[in-house]
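User: I'm putting together a teaching handout on how sequence relates to shape, and I'd like one worked example. Could you take Microcin C ABC transporter permease YejB from Rhizobium mesosinicum, show the sequence you're using, and then write out its predicted structure as tokens right after it?

Assistant: Happy to. First the sequence, then the structure tokens directly below it.
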Amino acid sequence: MGAYILRRLLLMIPTIIGIMAISFVVVQFAPGGPVEQVISQLTGQADSADQRLSGGGDLVVGGADDAGSKYRGAQGLDPELIAKLEKQFGFDKPPLTRFGEMMWNYIRFDFGESFFRNTTVLDLIKEKLPVSISLGIWILIFSYAISIPLGIRKAVKDGSSFDVWTSGVIIVGYAVPSFLFGILLIVLFAGGSFYDWFPLRGLVSDNFDQLTWWQKPLDYFWHLTLPLISLSLASFATTTLLTKNSFIDEIKKQYVITARAKGLNERQVLYGHVFRNAMLIVIASFPSAFISAFFTGSLLIENIFSLDGLGRLGYLSVVNRDYPIVFATLYIFSLLGLFVGLISDLIYTWIDPRIDFERRDV
């Protein structure tokens, strides 16, 4: 197992480099980069140059200059101002040099500073992390705590009326996008057209520090109720059906028939023999569910409920072409996904010692 872990760790290096390299190349061809973002503001507000550039810069109302012609809207700007912008954002260096410096800094977890926010990228991530952690952890806990027992029950009662009506509810829930369901919940319960039972924005109330110790968790979950319900739909349906199908496949196997023939009751057969084998495929889906819950799955929900987390931070960074934040979040979540995948494999071997990745042909 030690050799397998070492091999997986070594494979992470070219994998993360490949992910970052592809993203870096795509960014080079994306229009509207940070230089263009500043130029569009400078051409509309001449006195904002000093706010963007530490060294200042004068807006020249002259003719077009070839030095700035490679940027949209740069005609008429002083070439020295364009050069300062390129130096400020690091575009005065060749792309290969910029990529090499970025990866060297990222290896040391030095993510630099935001282009358009007066703070470091790491501080921004730390600031937004509590919201994403709150959403991600509780979604995983709720979805797995409900979906696994429900999936087992549906497998045991396969074909019954309980299985049919729960499947209908699950399929409908899966078909409805989480953000549409979130909007529906806002209309119904957050001061829309009906009731005003839940808050519309934020993770806690403005007077959170003034609340008593027992009021704080109530306030916290009061704010999280609607976002968690919205986000749980897709993961709830997927995990439930995955668990059900996995248990049905295992129940039909010969070792289950043998266990029953030995006189074991259904509970002993189900949880003593079937459970370990059936849960392997559920565990295999954990890494993607983990990453989705912490970032991609909460993007729209964070915007709808005005929760300032990593998903919203990443979205706004892409829109504003704040590349340090874009690449830093991509690097962190890619690295996190690779490590979670390795942990998932190790859990495989813990649940079923018969699985030996080290002897598997690569």
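A couple of points you could highlight for students: The radius of gyration is 26 Å. The domain at 121-359 is CATH 1.10.3720.10 (MetI-like fold).
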